[in-house]
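Memo to structure team: turn this sequence into structure tokens by end of day. - J.P.
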Amino acid sequence: MATAKKAAATKSTSTTKSAPSAAASSATKRTPNAAFMKPMTPSAELAAIVGSKPLPRTEVTKKVWDYIKKNKLQDAANKRMINADAKLQAVLKKPQVSMFEMTKIISTHLS
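Reply from structure team:
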């Protein structure tokens, strides 16, 4: 009977699975989604901020963030909120939006 308990104890400890190593996950390179890489034409309001030539969504987001940081439009108290100036308010249609809401609104200005 003691051997049965010992066998059960070793069986339960050997069934735990180890997490995949960090080296294995970093070795596989992520491929970008083609939908994000497709050049999109910005609307006239958004073109005032990012330029009028077609850009991928990722580049549009980067340029909008560059504009926000250059003009210090990020709220000092809550960094997740963006305070819109005249150009940005033409795109966002609100005086203040969250950074997550901003990306959703900007996507409506791309075609």
